[in-house]
Protein backbone atom coordinates (compact mmCIF):
# COMPACT_ATOMS: atom_id res chain seq x y z
CA UNK A 1 0.00 0.00 0.00
CA UNK A 2 2.96 2.31 0.47
CA UNK A 3 3.63 2.51 -3.28
CA UNK A 4 -0.06 3.09 -3.97
CA UNK A 5 -0.13 5.82 -1.35
CA UNK A 6 2.90 7.58 -2.83
CA UNK A 7 1.41 7.46 -6.32
CA UNK A 8 -1.91 8.76 -4.98
CA UNK A 9 -0.13 11.67 -3.30
CA UNK A 10 1.65 12.49 -6.56
CA UNK A 11 -1.66 12.38 -8.44
CA UNK A 12 -3.31 14.60 -5.85
CA UNK A 13 -0.47 17.11 -6.12
CA UNK A 14 -0.97 17.14 -9.87
CA UNK A 15 -4.69 17.79 -9.56
CA UNK A 16 -4.22 20.51 -6.98
CA UNK A 17 -1.94 22.28 -9.44
CA UNK A 18 -4.27 21.72 -12.40
CA UNK A 19 -7.38 22.84 -10.51
CA UNK A 20 -5.95 25.96 -8.92
CA UNK A 21 -2.81 27.06 -10.77
CA UNK A 22 -3.10 25.98 -14.42
CA UNK A 23 -4.82 29.00 -15.90
CA UNK A 24 -8.32 27.92 -14.95
CA UNK A 25 -8.23 25.60 -17.97
CA UNK A 26 -11.41 23.85 -16.89
CA UNK A 27 -13.57 26.98 -16.95
CA UNK A 28 -15.65 27.21 -20.10
CA UNK A 29 -15.75 30.99 -19.82
CA UNK A 30 -18.21 33.67 -20.88
CA UNK A 31 -17.25 33.64 -24.56
CA UNK A 32 -16.66 36.80 -26.54
CA UNK A 33 -17.17 40.07 -24.68
CA UNK A 34 -19.71 42.60 -25.84
CA UNK A 35 -17.78 45.25 -27.71
CA UNK A 36 -18.70 48.56 -29.34
CA UNK A 37 -18.83 48.96 -33.09
CA UNK A 38 -15.58 50.23 -34.61
CA UNK A 39 -15.47 53.70 -36.10
CA UNK A 40 -15.03 52.11 -39.53
CA UNK A 41 -15.79 48.48 -40.29
CA UNK A 42 -12.67 46.67 -41.56
CA UNK A 43 -12.85 44.47 -44.62
CA UNK A 44 -13.03 40.71 -44.01
CA UNK A 45 -12.41 37.79 -46.34
CA UNK A 46 -13.37 34.30 -45.17
CA UNK A 47 -11.10 31.55 -46.53
CA UNK A 48 -12.64 28.07 -46.63
CA UNK A 49 -10.25 25.25 -47.62
CA UNK A 50 -12.36 22.36 -48.88
CA UNK A 51 -11.64 18.85 -50.10
CA UNK A 52 -14.57 16.51 -50.79
CA UNK A 53 -17.02 18.54 -48.70
CA UNK A 54 -20.09 18.44 -50.93
CA UNK A 55 -22.11 16.55 -48.32
CA UNK A 56 -21.65 19.05 -45.50
CA UNK A 57 -21.60 22.36 -47.42
CA UNK A 58 -25.43 22.68 -47.60
CA UNK A 59 -25.44 22.87 -43.78
CA UNK A 60 -22.62 25.36 -43.47
CA UNK A 61 -21.85 27.56 -46.48
CA UNK A 62 -25.27 29.30 -46.49
CA UNK A 63 -24.73 30.35 -42.85
CA UNK A 64 -21.49 32.08 -43.83
CA UNK A 65 -22.95 33.76 -46.89
CA UNK A 66 -25.94 34.94 -44.81
CA UNK A 67 -23.78 36.94 -42.38
CA UNK A 68 -24.98 40.55 -42.42
CA UNK A 69 -21.61 42.09 -41.79
CA UNK A 70 -21.73 45.93 -41.94
CA UNK A 71 -18.41 46.21 -43.82
CA UNK A 72 -16.94 44.57 -46.91
CA UNK A 73 -17.21 40.79 -46.61
CA UNK A 74 -16.35 38.07 -49.09
CA UNK A 75 -16.01 34.29 -48.97
CA UNK A 76 -13.35 32.37 -50.88
CA UNK A 77 -13.80 28.62 -51.08
CA UNK A 78 -10.59 26.87 -52.11
CA UNK A 79 -11.38 23.58 -53.82
CA UNK A 80 -8.39 21.32 -53.20
CA UNK A 81 -8.81 18.65 -55.84
CA UNK A 82 -12.22 17.44 -54.73
CA UNK A 83 -13.71 14.47 -56.50
CA UNK A 84 -17.27 14.79 -55.21
CA UNK A 85 -18.42 18.01 -56.86
CA UNK A 86 -17.54 20.32 -53.98
CA UNK A 87 -17.09 23.35 -56.25
CA UNK A 88 -20.34 22.68 -58.12
CA UNK A 89 -22.24 22.27 -54.83
CA UNK A 90 -20.82 25.53 -53.50
CA UNK A 91 -21.78 27.38 -56.68
CA UNK A 92 -25.31 25.99 -56.53
CA UNK A 93 -25.70 27.02 -52.89
CA UNK A 94 -24.46 30.54 -53.61
CA UNK A 95 -26.95 30.87 -56.48
CA UNK A 96 -25.02 33.68 -58.07
CA UNK A 97 -24.15 35.49 -54.83
CA UNK A 98 -21.16 37.70 -55.77
CA UNK A 99 -19.84 37.39 -52.22
CA UNK A 100 -18.60 33.86 -53.02
CA UNK A 101 -15.53 33.11 -55.10
CA UNK A 102 -14.48 29.53 -55.82
CA UNK A 103 -10.76 29.08 -56.35
CA UNK A 104 -9.16 25.80 -57.45
CA UNK A 105 -6.00 25.09 -55.47
CA UNK A 106 -2.90 24.99 -57.60
CA UNK A 107 -0.41 22.17 -57.53
CA UNK A 108 0.99 21.87 -54.03
CA UNK A 109 4.72 22.61 -53.81
CA UNK A 110 6.97 20.05 -52.14
CA UNK A 111 7.06 20.40 -48.39
CA UNK A 112 3.66 22.05 -47.96
CA UNK A 113 0.92 20.45 -45.85
CA UNK A 114 -2.35 20.10 -47.72
CA UNK A 115 -4.57 22.35 -45.65
CA UNK A 116 -1.97 25.09 -45.17
CA UNK A 117 -1.38 25.19 -48.93
CA UNK A 118 -5.12 25.55 -49.56
CA UNK A 119 -5.26 28.32 -46.95
CA UNK A 120 -2.38 30.11 -48.66
CA UNK A 121 -4.16 29.87 -52.01
CA UNK A 122 -7.14 31.56 -50.41
CA UNK A 123 -4.91 34.28 -48.96
CA UNK A 124 -3.40 34.88 -52.40
CA UNK A 125 -6.86 35.30 -53.91
CA UNK A 126 -8.12 37.50 -51.06
CA UNK A 127 -6.12 40.59 -51.94
CA UNK A 128 -5.50 42.93 -49.03
CA UNK A 129 -8.44 42.83 -46.59
CA UNK A 130 -7.96 44.02 -43.02
CA UNK A 131 -8.87 40.59 -41.62
CA UNK A 132 -8.78 37.01 -42.85
CA UNK A 133 -11.24 34.53 -41.38
CA UNK A 134 -9.84 31.00 -41.75
CA UNK A 135 -12.69 28.56 -41.30
CA UNK A 136 -13.40 24.92 -42.11
CA UNK A 137 -16.01 23.69 -44.55
CA UNK A 138 -17.92 21.89 -41.81
CA UNK A 139 -18.42 25.02 -39.65
CA UNK A 140 -21.82 26.73 -39.38
CA UNK A 141 -22.18 30.29 -38.08
CA UNK A 142 -25.03 31.82 -36.11
CA UNK A 143 -26.33 35.15 -37.46
CA UNK A 144 -24.14 38.08 -36.48
CA UNK A 145 -21.12 35.96 -35.57
CA UNK A 146 -18.66 37.59 -37.98
CA UNK A 147 -19.71 41.03 -36.77
CA UNK A 148 -19.20 39.93 -33.16
CA UNK A 149 -15.76 38.54 -33.97
CA UNK A 150 -14.65 41.79 -35.58
CA UNK A 151 -16.07 43.91 -32.77
CA UNK A 152 -14.12 41.90 -30.20
CA UNK A 153 -10.92 41.86 -32.25
CA UNK A 154 -10.92 45.60 -32.90
CA UNK A 155 -11.95 46.64 -29.38
CA UNK A 156 -9.50 44.19 -27.76
CA UNK A 157 -6.67 44.97 -30.21
CA UNK A 158 -6.39 41.27 -31.05
CA UNK A 159 -4.30 40.08 -33.96
CA UNK A 160 -5.70 36.53 -33.78
CA UNK A 161 -9.12 35.80 -32.36
CA UNK A 162 -10.15 32.14 -32.47
CA UNK A 163 -13.33 30.36 -31.47
CA UNK A 164 -13.39 26.64 -30.70
CA UNK A 165 -16.50 25.31 -32.39
CA UNK A 166 -19.11 23.33 -30.54
CA UNK A 167 -18.59 19.77 -31.82
CA UNK A 168 -21.24 17.17 -32.53
CA UNK A 169 -22.45 15.05 -29.61
CA UNK A 170 -25.38 13.37 -31.32
CA UNK A 171 -24.14 9.79 -31.02
CA UNK A 172 -23.15 7.81 -27.95
CA UNK A 173 -19.47 7.70 -28.79
CA UNK A 174 -19.42 11.42 -29.57
CA UNK A 175 -20.85 12.10 -26.12
CA UNK A 176 -18.09 9.99 -24.59
CA UNK A 177 -15.12 11.32 -26.56
CA UNK A 178 -15.87 14.88 -27.69
CA UNK A 179 -16.21 16.72 -24.33
CA UNK A 180 -13.02 15.03 -23.14
CA UNK A 181 -11.27 16.04 -26.37
CA UNK A 182 -12.03 19.72 -25.72
CA UNK A 183 -11.17 19.34 -22.02
CA UNK A 184 -7.76 17.80 -22.82
CA UNK A 185 -7.10 20.48 -25.46
CA UNK A 186 -7.81 23.20 -22.90
CA UNK A 187 -5.56 21.40 -20.42
CA UNK A 188 -2.71 21.50 -22.94
CA UNK A 189 -3.44 25.10 -23.99
CA UNK A 190 -5.30 26.95 -21.21
CA UNK A 191 -7.41 29.53 -23.00
CA UNK A 192 -6.71 32.28 -20.47
CA UNK A 193 -2.98 31.85 -20.95
CA UNK A 194 -3.41 32.01 -24.72
CA UNK A 195 -4.99 35.44 -24.26
CA UNK A 196 -2.40 36.68 -21.76
CA UNK A 197 0.25 38.95 -23.22
CA UNK A 198 3.73 37.63 -22.49
CA UNK A 199 2.56 34.09 -21.68
CA UNK A 200 4.28 31.38 -23.70
CA UNK A 201 1.07 29.41 -24.26
CA UNK A 202 -0.15 29.89 -27.83
CA UNK A 203 -2.85 28.04 -29.76
CA UNK A 204 -5.95 28.49 -31.87
CA UNK A 205 -8.89 26.37 -33.01
CA UNK A 206 -8.80 25.74 -36.74
CA UNK A 207 -12.54 25.93 -37.33
CA UNK A 208 -12.64 29.68 -36.74
CA UNK A 209 -9.55 31.90 -36.76
CA UNK A 210 -9.92 35.63 -37.42
CA UNK A 211 -6.45 36.99 -38.20
CA UNK A 212 -5.35 40.55 -38.81
CA UNK A 213 -3.72 40.35 -42.24
CA UNK A 214 -0.97 42.84 -41.37
CA UNK A 215 -0.01 40.76 -38.32
CA UNK A 216 0.14 37.61 -40.43
CA UNK A 217 2.38 39.33 -42.96
CA UNK A 218 4.62 40.70 -40.21
CA UNK A 219 4.93 37.19 -38.74
CA UNK A 220 6.17 35.86 -42.07
CA UNK A 221 2.92 34.55 -43.54
CA UNK A 222 1.70 31.00 -43.90
CA UNK A 223 4.97 30.01 -45.55
CA UNK A 224 6.48 29.99 -42.07
CA UNK A 225 4.19 27.09 -41.09
CA UNK A 226 3.99 25.48 -44.53
CA UNK A 227 4.60 21.94 -43.23
CA UNK A 228 2.32 22.15 -40.17
CA UNK A 229 -0.12 19.28 -39.78
CA UNK A 230 -1.71 20.89 -36.72
CA UNK A 231 -2.17 24.20 -38.49
CA UNK A 232 -4.24 25.99 -35.85
CA UNK A 233 -1.74 25.61 -33.01
CA UNK A 234 1.07 26.45 -35.43
CA UNK A 235 -0.71 29.63 -36.54
CA UNK A 236 -1.34 30.66 -32.94
CA UNK A 237 2.34 30.22 -32.11
CA UNK A 238 3.42 32.07 -35.24
CA UNK A 239 1.32 35.14 -34.49
CA UNK A 240 2.03 35.26 -30.76
CA UNK A 241 5.79 34.76 -31.09
CA UNK A 242 5.83 37.70 -33.50
CA UNK A 243 4.32 39.86 -30.76
CA UNK A 244 0.68 39.50 -31.80
CA UNK A 245 -2.14 39.57 -29.26
CA UNK A 246 -4.34 36.47 -29.29
CA UNK A 247 -7.58 35.22 -27.80
CA UNK A 248 -9.21 31.78 -27.76
CA UNK A 249 -12.71 30.94 -26.48
CA UNK A 250 -15.30 28.21 -26.60
CA UNK A 251 -18.27 29.19 -28.74
CA UNK A 252 -21.90 28.22 -29.10
CA UNK A 253 -22.26 30.43 -32.19
CA UNK A 254 -19.66 28.49 -34.18
CA UNK A 255 -20.77 24.90 -34.66
CA UNK A 256 -19.18 21.93 -36.42
CA UNK A 257 -21.59 19.93 -38.55
CA UNK A 258 -19.14 17.11 -39.15
CA UNK A 259 -20.47 13.86 -37.65
CA UNK A 260 -18.33 11.13 -36.10
CA UNK A 261 -20.91 8.37 -35.80
CA UNK A 262 -18.51 5.52 -34.98
CA UNK A 263 -15.71 5.11 -32.50
CA UNK A 264 -13.46 4.32 -35.47
CA UNK A 265 -14.11 7.80 -36.90
CA UNK A 266 -13.20 9.51 -33.64
CA UNK A 267 -10.22 7.21 -33.18
CA UNK A 268 -8.87 8.10 -36.63
CA UNK A 269 -9.37 11.83 -35.99
CA UNK A 270 -7.23 11.72 -32.85
CA UNK A 271 -4.70 9.06 -33.84
CA UNK A 272 -3.81 10.77 -37.12
CA UNK A 273 -2.04 13.66 -35.36
CA UNK A 274 -1.38 12.63 -31.74
CA UNK A 275 2.14 11.33 -32.33
CA UNK A 276 2.94 14.31 -34.55
CA UNK A 277 2.00 16.59 -31.64
CA UNK A 278 4.58 14.69 -29.59
CA UNK A 279 7.15 15.45 -32.30
CA UNK A 280 7.49 11.74 -33.07
CA UNK A 281 9.47 11.36 -29.83
CA UNK A 282 9.37 7.98 -28.02
CA UNK A 283 10.45 9.78 -24.84
CA UNK A 284 7.55 12.25 -25.06
CA UNK A 285 5.20 9.38 -25.88
CA UNK A 286 6.31 7.46 -22.79
CA UNK A 287 6.04 10.57 -20.63
CA UNK A 288 2.58 11.40 -21.94
CA UNK A 289 1.22 7.91 -21.34
CA UNK A 290 2.81 7.79 -17.88
CA UNK A 291 1.31 11.19 -17.07
CA UNK A 292 -2.15 10.08 -18.20
CA UNK A 293 -1.92 6.97 -16.06
CA UNK A 294 -0.72 8.90 -13.02
CA UNK A 295 -3.32 11.64 -13.23
CA UNK A 296 -6.32 9.64 -14.38
CA UNK A 297 -5.82 5.96 -13.53
CA UNK A 298 -4.11 6.22 -10.15
CA UNK A 299 -6.87 8.12 -8.26
CA UNK A 300 -9.65 5.56 -8.85
CA UNK A 301 -7.18 2.67 -8.43
CA UNK A 302 -5.95 4.10 -5.12
CA UNK A 303 -9.51 4.64 -3.98
CA UNK A 304 -10.39 1.03 -4.74
CA UNK A 305 -7.20 -0.26 -3.12
CA UNK A 306 -7.89 1.77 0.00
CA UNK A 307 -11.42 0.43 0.26
CA UNK A 308 -10.19 -3.14 -0.13
CA UNK A 309 -7.41 -2.71 2.43
CA UNK A 310 -9.81 -1.27 4.98
CA UNK A 311 -9.33 1.50 7.58
CA UNK A 312 -6.26 -0.06 9.17
CA UNK A 313 -3.90 0.16 6.20
CA UNK A 314 -5.81 1.75 3.37
CA UNK A 315 -7.01 5.05 4.82
CA UNK A 316 -4.23 7.27 3.38
CA UNK A 317 -4.56 5.82 -0.13
CA UNK A 318 -8.34 6.05 0.06
CA UNK A 319 -8.32 9.67 1.19
CA UNK A 320 -5.77 10.95 -1.31
CA UNK A 321 -7.11 8.89 -4.22
CA UNK A 322 -10.71 9.94 -3.59
CA UNK A 323 -9.78 13.63 -3.27
CA UNK A 324 -7.77 13.55 -6.51
CA UNK A 325 -10.64 11.76 -8.26
CA UNK A 326 -13.10 14.34 -6.92
CA UNK A 327 -10.97 17.24 -8.19
CA UNK A 328 -10.80 15.55 -11.58
CA UNK A 329 -14.57 15.17 -11.76
CA UNK A 330 -15.23 18.72 -10.55
CA UNK A 331 -12.97 20.23 -13.20
CA UNK A 332 -14.60 18.11 -15.92
CA UNK A 333 -18.15 19.05 -14.91
CA UNK A 334 -18.20 22.49 -16.62
CA UNK A 335 -17.34 20.92 -19.97
CA UNK A 336 -20.11 18.36 -19.60
CA UNK A 337 -22.48 21.17 -18.71
CA UNK A 338 -21.36 23.15 -21.76
CA UNK A 339 -22.32 20.18 -23.96
CA UNK A 340 -25.60 19.65 -22.11
CA UNK A 341 -24.58 16.25 -20.75
CA UNK A 342 -25.26 14.71 -17.36
CA UNK A 343 -22.70 15.39 -14.64
CA UNK A 344 -23.00 11.70 -13.75
CA UNK A 345 -20.47 11.19 -16.55
CA UNK A 346 -17.76 13.16 -14.73
CA UNK A 347 -16.38 10.34 -12.52
CA UNK A 348 -15.94 8.18 -15.64
CA UNK A 349 -13.29 10.51 -17.07
CA UNK A 350 -10.48 8.05 -16.14
CA UNK A 351 -11.92 5.52 -18.58
CA UNK A 352 -12.01 8.12 -21.35
CA UNK A 353 -8.42 9.12 -20.54
CA UNK A 354 -7.33 5.49 -20.91
CA UNK A 355 -9.07 5.46 -24.29
CA UNK A 356 -7.08 8.54 -25.29
CA UNK A 357 -3.87 6.88 -24.12
CA UNK A 358 -4.67 3.93 -26.38
CA UNK A 359 -5.33 6.29 -29.31
CA UNK A 360 -1.98 8.00 -28.71
CA UNK A 361 -0.14 4.70 -28.63
CA UNK A 362 -1.93 3.65 -31.81
CA UNK A 363 -0.85 6.89 -33.44
CA UNK A 364 2.77 5.98 -32.72
CA UNK A 365 2.18 2.42 -33.97
CA UNK A 366 0.77 3.72 -37.24
CA UNK A 367 3.73 6.03 -37.66
CA UNK A 368 6.25 3.25 -37.05
CA UNK A 369 4.38 1.09 -39.57
CA UNK A 370 4.82 3.86 -42.13
CA UNK A 371 1.11 4.50 -42.42
CA UNK A 372 0.50 7.46 -40.15
CA UNK A 373 -3.19 8.25 -40.00
CA UNK A 374 -5.53 8.30 -42.96
CA UNK A 375 -7.80 11.25 -43.66
CA UNK A 376 -9.78 12.10 -46.80
CA UNK A 377 -7.90 9.55 -48.84
CA UNK A 378 -4.47 10.73 -47.79
CA UNK A 379 -1.98 9.11 -45.47
CA UNK A 380 0.15 10.88 -42.88
CA UNK A 381 3.60 9.62 -42.12
CA UNK A 382 6.43 11.40 -40.33
CA UNK A 383 9.66 11.29 -42.24
CA UNK A 384 12.16 13.73 -40.77
CA UNK A 385 13.88 13.70 -37.42
CA UNK A 386 12.54 17.19 -36.90
CA UNK A 387 9.05 15.77 -36.84
CA UNK A 388 7.97 17.18 -40.17
CA UNK A 389 5.52 14.95 -41.94
CA UNK A 390 5.08 13.91 -45.50
CA UNK A 391 3.43 17.15 -46.52
CA UNK A 392 2.39 15.88 -49.92
CA UNK A 393 0.10 13.54 -48.06
CA UNK A 394 -1.00 15.90 -45.29
CA UNK A 395 -4.68 16.05 -44.33
CA UNK A 396 -7.16 18.69 -45.26
CA UNK A 397 -9.91 18.93 -42.72
Automatic annotation (TrEMBL):
Transmembrane portions of the chain: 280-298, 305-332, 338-358
InterPro entries: Glyco_trans_2-like, Glyco_trans_2_hopen-assoc_HpnB, Nucleotide-diphossugar_trans
Superkingdom of the organism of origin: Bacteria
Descriptive protein name: Hopene-associated glycosyltransferase HpnB
GO MF annotation terms: transferase activity
Xref: Gene3D superfamilies: Spore Coat Polysaccharide Biosynthesis Protein SpsA, Chain A
Entry-linked Pfam families: Glycos_transf_2
SUPFAM superfamilies from the UniProt entry: Nucleotide-diphospho-sugar transferases
Domain Glycosyltransferase 2-like, residue spans: 47-216
Region (Disordered), start-end ranges: 369-397
The entry's keywords: Membrane, Transferase, Transmembrane, Transmembrane helix
Protein species of origin: Actinomadura citrea
Amino acid sequence: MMVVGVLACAALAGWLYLAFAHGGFWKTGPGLPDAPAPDAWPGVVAVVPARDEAAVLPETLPTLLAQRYPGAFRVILVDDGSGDGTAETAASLADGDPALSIVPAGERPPGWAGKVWAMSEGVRAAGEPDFLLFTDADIAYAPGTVEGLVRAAVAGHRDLLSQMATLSTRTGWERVVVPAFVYFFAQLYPFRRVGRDGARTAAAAGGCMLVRRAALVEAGGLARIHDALIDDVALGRLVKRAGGRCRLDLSRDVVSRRPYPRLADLWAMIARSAYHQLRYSPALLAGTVAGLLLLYAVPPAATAAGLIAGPAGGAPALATGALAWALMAVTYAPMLRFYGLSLVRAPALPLVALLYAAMTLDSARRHRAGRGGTWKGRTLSGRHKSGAADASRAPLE
